[in-house]
Design brief:
Length: about 1000
């Protein structure tokens, strides 16, 4: 809905709701409304308010008031994961978000294979719960980490494997819903007599059953003739499957795919099935995308679970993503021709033999038509298969990272045609896009005829935005020509205007009559799918070119501010940062709060809006503009205050929305107007202070580590539990390298070439060299024991805290000095190694200059793993394995997201030493530099540790726990009562215990 609720009516409704016994949250602040104005579509529509119900009865309270004569009508738009590609949950009305609180698994019956969930439960959350029982919920969408079951029902989601597994609606056993009069109804399959008895009732449920029974009976022939007969015949109001052949009445099929236009869902009971125990994936590479498409129908004869296709655009972007390191051995091999198409063919079964037999059948088909494919690889390793599917899941986001103003846009991206017609259809689709001079990315579910196509458009450019209408009309005509639909998977949303085109005026009129009996006042997601009466100002279907576009707002951002928030504007709303899993490192603040204003997507939205308002105010100053800007600026500051600057979003977000970098730029601007806190000024001087205090650590600790100084730090600076300085510095054989002693550097540069491979430079950093010299010393001593000559380089200021605080003017000379000094050291030709991941990675992030190559600073694991692989490192013979219990290795979240091979590299090194490690899947420990020491964040810091780390530490002896990050070791000591060792400490201890010196 695009019309506005009168302010007085909205205020009265929200006030009455708060007084009604409603237990959920009510948000009408500008930040929340701005964040909920967008999804994964091209549209932007600001809601009047957002409601977060806490229990099922809250939904009844909302609907009763929204439909009441006194406070209504109030339009309601239900929202789940917020990843819709067609504006399904966007509304200028009131959004009802069940994902924050109504996300519990209510009951599970393993014997009957039934599970009842609230609508906010996430797909991956449900399947993680079912996995120990050997069961799963089959519909497999690419947004499984954040897609809610309520949202999947609303769009009748299917995803990968739908050829054999079907859609969400095929697994609905029952639904508890709230009707438009606020009453409850339990939906389940009814035999004909029972449904007739319900239809005889005088209440709303009776009227609904009467009308739906009438429509499916009177219009049976028309429904059969018009509804597409294909796997992806998704329609919204699925009349085709309401009646079963035996006469059973299945209202759930009508509700599934109705996009919240008929009722609100309180809970869903789903049928689940046994999880296949074995799987294999065959990656087939082609010289042409069209050839890959054309080959699908031949490969289907092998009866795979799924065939997914990717084009060269997606493959090219994947090579720039962190995921590539794990799949390069499968997809990156040299070929005689460029790879422009790829089919993933998956087989599943209950035994290895069954899967091998299926793969052999495919292998024979491929060999028989070997001129079609360049080559193919069979993958059975579960971890590699999972990574390959992660690539496919990331495709949506990757197309938002093509570089330049034009990015992949979703508006005709889920069309479906009968699979046997797919290749011909796509040829015409491509010709249509080519006629407009557009590039595009293509991927999707080729085995069922559903292809995701994202034309590259700059939606800030009015010329490009104007192409939405002709391309949509053209693609709609094409899909109808080929017997398909414009919406094959992701629902209709604002494309509801095309419903009469596909279903004809008679059948569409029946859809409107069904809408009218369910929702006579048009309060449920109005403007989508159907209207409850004739098209009027009150009852109208929104048209695609009448809904505000996100690009129209972005167009108002001037060039200077666009440069500062470019990655925020690039955010396409795919929602990868909304992952439910506490062990996923991206965005700990969102996981702790479930508040989307405290997520990368939310922060990107607020930064975009701030930049827009600031641009408008600069261009045409006004009092109203200044007020709006100041209010938004305060919201952005509040949102960014809980950002831990972990930088996981910079690599894990498919679009690389680097919030910490934009946070720094925003804070620099913000503090030109608002003075800095005492804490900021103290932290800005931290590195110079540490250099002074490090000369007398015992005295410094005596002064700082006591109750009085602790109270002062808390009350005046808002800091608590600061770590003590290390008692002694890192010791080496030679004098430490320092910028003030250039001759020492020249001496290293002059080393004979044959000697250099056994020399390394170990860069000290101000964190470990001040607070945790045990770890730095262990790295030094381990490398020495392994036969390397280690040259210590004194810690110099790295400026990390300055950058986090947005003190960019002060940061710039510090960064330049670090670049220059480390560049001099790199010029010696010796490897540069670091201890602390955060400072090592600064050359790749904060220090990096456009167009310049970054100084390579290796981590210990990188260096040793490379030496092992090159055959230059042989573990000392004196070292025999002494530990039978595997070490539990916890990696720094910044490190493992930016360098995903870190865990496997440490595992390989420990294996060479005869030791085992188990890399723990965890999110952020909650410390993140000073964040966990800041008084206002202490509670969240502890919460994050308990969410992710505490369960993984359970039952582990302290000596078996290893942590690569200084913050992580500090936080574990604080929260769990012991300091984990750095991996180098464990290896060194093992060598020394074995008598190696």
């Amino acid at each position: 809905m695009t019309t506005t609720i009168p302010a007085q009516r909205l205020a009265a409704f929200l006030s009455a709701l708060a007084a009604s016994g409603y237990r959920g949250d009510i948000a009408s602040d500008i930040a929340t409304r701005a964040v909920f104005a967008t999804d994964n579509s091209i549209y932007q529509l600001t809601p009047a308010a957002v409601l977060y119900p806490r229990e099922g009865e809250d939904l009844n309270r909302i609907v009763r008031l929204a439909a009441s004569a006194e406070y209504g009508p109030i339009p309601l738009a239900p929202r789940g994961g917020g990843t819709g590609t067609n504006g399904q949950s966007l509304s200028s009305g009131v959004v009802v978000d069940t994902s924050r609180h109504m996300n519990g698994i209510v009951s599970f019956d393993a014997e009957r294979r039934l599970v009842t969930v609230q609508p906010g439960v996430v797909l991956d959350q449900l399947n993680a719960y079912l996995k120990p029982h050997g069961l799963f919920f089959p519909p497999s969408v690419s947004t499984a980490t954040r897609a809610t079951l309520g949202g999947m029902v609303a769009t009748d989601a299917s995803g990968k494997g739908s050829r054999i597994y079907g859609k969400t609606s095929d697994y609905i056993e029952a639904m508890d819903i709230v009707l438009a009069d606020g009453s409850n109804w339990s939906v389940e399959d009814l035999d004909d007599d029972t449904s007739a008895a319900v239809a005889a009732r005088s209440d709303m449920a009776g009227a609904i059953h009467r009308e739906v029974r009438r429509v499916v009976t009177e219009q049976a022939e028309r429904i059969t003739a018009i509804f597409p007969k294909m796997n992806r015949g998704l329609t919204g109001y699925n009349l085709q499957h309401v009646r079963r052949d035996d006469g059973a009445f299945r209202l759930a099929y009508l509700l599934a795919g109705s996009e919240g236009t008929l009722a609100l869902t309180k809970q869903i009971t789903l049928r689940v099935i046994p999880r296949p125990s074995h799987r294999a994936l065959v990656a087939v590479r082609y010289a042409h995308f069209q050839m890959a498409l054309a080959d699908v129908q031949r490969l289907v004869a092998a009866e795979p679970a799924a065939i997914e296709i990717l084009d060269d655009k997606v493959l090219g972007l994947a090579q720039q993503d962190v995921i590539w390191s794990g799949i390069e051995n499968v997809l990156g091999g040299a070929t005689p021709q460029p790879v422009l198409g790829l089919n993933f063919v998956e087989f599943v079964g209950d035994s290895a033999a069954a899967v091998e037999k299926q793969v052999a059948r495919l292998d024979a088909l491929l060999a028989d038509g070997s001129e079609r494919a360049i080559d193919w690889a069979v993958v059975t390793d579960a971890a590699t298969v999972a990574q390959l599917w992660t690539l496919r899941e990331k495709a949506v986001g990757l197309l938002g990272r093509l570089g330049g103003a034009r990015q992949g846009m979703a508006f005709v991206e889920d069309t479906a045609v009968p699979p046997e017609k797919l290749a011909d259809y796509v040829a015409e689709f491509r010709a249509l896009l080519d006629s407009h001079g557009l590039a595009y990315g293509m991927f999707g579910h080729a085995d069922v005829g559903c292809l995701h196509v994202r034309p590259l458009l700059d939606m800030k450019n009015p010329f490009d935005a104007a192409l939405i209408r002709p391309i949509s009309d053209g693609v709609a005509a094409l899909t109808k020509k080929y017997g398909g639909l414009l919406w094959g998977e992701h629902g209709r949303g604002f494309r509801g205007e095309y419903s009469p085109f596909f279903f004809g005026p008679e059948l569409y009129a029946e859809l409107c009559r069904i809408k009218a009996v369910f929702d006579p006042q048009n309060i449920f997601n109005p403007g989508k799918l159907a209207t409850p009466g004739p098209q009027t100002a009150l009852h109208k279907i929104d048209r695609i070119d009448m809904v505000p576009l996100r690009g129209q707002a972005d167009q108002q951002i001037d060039a200077i501010r666009m440069q500062a928030v470019e990655r925020a504007v690039a955010c396409n709303g795919n929602g990868a940062c909304f992952s439910w899993d506490a062990s996923d490192p991206m965005c700990p603040s969102y996981k702790a709060t479930r508040d989307r204003t405290q997520s990368p997507k939310g922060r990107a939205t607020l930064l975009r809006e701030w930049a827009r308002l600031d641009s408008l105010q600069q261009a045409a100053p006004s009092e109203a503009g200044a007020t709006a800007l100041q209010a938004m600026e305060a919201e952005v500051k509040t949102s960014l205050s809980t950002c831990l600057s972990c930088k996981a979003c910079a690599s894990q977000c498919p679009v690389r929305v680097d919030i910490p970098a934009m946070k720094s730029r925003f804070l620099q601007h913000y503090h030109q107007r608002v003075s800095r806190s005492r804490r900021d000024r103290l932290v800005a001087r931290m590195e110079p202070l540490l250099a002074i205090l490090g000369k007398a650590p015992a005295l410094a600790n005596l002064l700082a580590q006591n109750r009085v100084s602790g109270a002062i730090l808390r009350r005046i600076f808002g800091l608590s539990d600061l770590p003590a300085l290390s008692a002694s510095p890192v010791q080496g054989k030679d004098a430490k390298l320092h910028p003030s002693q250039p001759l020492a550097v020249q001496t290293l540069k002059a080393l004979p070439a044959e000697e250099k491979p056994r020399h390394v430079i170990l860069l000290e950093d101000s964190f470990t060299s001040s607070f945790d010299t045990t770890a730095a010393q262990a790295v030094h001593d381990l490398l020495t024991l392994l036969g390397y000559r280690v040259h210590l380089a004194s810690a110099i200021a790295n400026g990390k805290s300055l950058h986090v605080l947005g003190m960019l003017d002060q940061f710039a000379p510090v960064a330049e000095a670090a670049r220059a000094w480390h560049g001099q050291l790199a010029a010696t030709g010796l490897p540069l190694l670091g201890v602390e991941a955060v400072t090592m990675l600064m050359h790749e992030h904060e220090y990096k200059l456009d167009g310049a190559s970054a100084t390579q600073v290796q981590s210990t694991d990188q260096f040793l793993a490379n030496e092992l692989e090159a055959g230059r490192l042989h573990w000392p013979q004196c070292a025999s394995a002494t530990a039978n219990t595997p070490f539990r290795l916890f990696l720094h979240c910044t490190e493992k997201t930016a360098r995903p091979r870190t865990g496997s590299q440490w595992s390989n090194i420990f294996r060479a030493a005869g030791l085992q490690t188990e890399v723990q899947a965890t999110g952020c420990c909650g410390m993140a530099g000073l964040f966990g020491h800041e008084q206002e964040h202490v509670a969240m810091s502890a919460q994050l540790f308990d969410m992710s780390w505490t369960p993984k530490l359970a039952g582990a002896a302290p000596e078996q726990v290893l942590a690569s990050g200084f913050s992580c070791r500090c936080q574990t000591e604080r929260q769990a009562g012991f300091r984990p060792r750095h991996p180098a400490e464990a290896l060194l201890a093992q060598l020394r215990a074995a008598g190696c010196n």
